[in-house]
Design brief:
It is a single chain. The chain has about 260 residues and is α+β, with helices and mostly antiparallel strands. Helix content is about 25%, strand content about 35%. The protein has six helices and 13 strands. An eight-stranded mixed beta sheet has the order 1-2-3-4-6-7-9-8, with helices on both faces. The protein has a three-stranded antiparallel beta sheet with strand order 10-12-11. Strands 5-13 form a two-stranded antiparallel ribbon. The longest helix is centred in the middle third of the chain and has 16 residues.
């Protein structure tokens, strides 16, 4: 199994410096030739997780990635010293292939307007280097360039690390659902790409106004569901008090386009 990544034959999106070691990394767009490396990193991550945490990671097969790349989708990767140390699977549906992989989300959008990030993993030895943030930033930039207006993700409510980073990056908890296969409670994460891009250019990005905001304990799932049903969206996380910050948003008018994503 060849897990080396040759940067000379791989599309590099940007380079950066690892926060902990000051060594250079490359953020790349992987292809079908890198499936061995993708599967190897997936195995490393899975083996490092506790039994409870393993439910956060839906392991994907070689066949999945072969079909994923054949459909024109991408995988973002972070490479250090020729090895893949972090990756994110990006699904870009089309009218011909509308499946998003989302379990339980209703959104007023056409498949070609949506982009989904999933399978975000970082080698434990590289955690603390903001690599998920780098991949989320790249995903949003690609979505804007491609004209995809809705960026979405699905995260287990117990996976604090992932959903807290999405919130920090300006996405919101849009709704909640449940994976019927195992009963896992899920946050549906969402952002309007153009609006988020503009917000990121302002000095007050990630500075939520306290007016009308409500904080709900991260363990209070029923309280969060109630707020979401009343039109609130999760916009931030008060880590010191383990509370999610919710902000009221105007309820959208009923639209025949709003439907459960496939």
């Amino acid at each position: 199994m060849n897990t080396d990544i040759d940067l000379k034959t791989t599309q590099t999106l940007k380079t950066g410096t690892l926060k902990k070691s000051n060594e250079q990394f490359a953020l790349v767009s992987l292809s079908a030739k890198n499936i061995d490396a993708i599967l190897a990193l997936q195995d490393i991550i899975f083996d490092s997780l506790s039994e409870q945490e393993q439910s956060f990671l839906l392991r994907k097969s070689r066949e999945f990635f072969e079909k994923h790349f054949a459909a024109g989708n991408i995988v973002l990767g972070v490479v250090h010293n020729g090895q893949l140390v972090a990756q994110s699977v990006v699904v870009n549906p089309t009218a011909q292939n509308p499946k998003t992989g989302m379990v339980d989300m209703v959104l007023d959008a056409q498949p070609q307007d949506v982009t989904i990030i999933q399978g975000v993993v970082v080698n434990p030895a590289y955690q603390g280097n903001r690599l998920m943030t780098e991949m989320v930033d790249a995903w949003l930039a690609i979505a804007e360039k491609q004209g995809r207006s809705h960026a979405i993700a699905e995260v287990a409510v117990d996976n604090y690390y992932s959903w807290s980073i999405f919130l920090k990056e300006g996405l919101q908890i849009h709704s909640m659902g449940m994976d019927s296969s195992d009963g896992t409670q899920l946050y549906n994460i969402h952002a309007n790409v153009a609006a988020l891009t503009q917000k990121r250019l302002t000095p007050d990005f990630n500075k939520a106004s306290a007016k009308n905001n409500v904080k709900c304990p991260s363990a209070d799932i029923e309280g969060q569901k109630k707020l979401l049903s009343e039109g609130y969206k999760g916009i931030g996380f008060d880590a010191a008090n383990s509370k999610i910050v919710f902000e009221p948003f105007p309820k959208p008018s009923a639209s025949p386009g709003a439907k459960r994503l496939p």
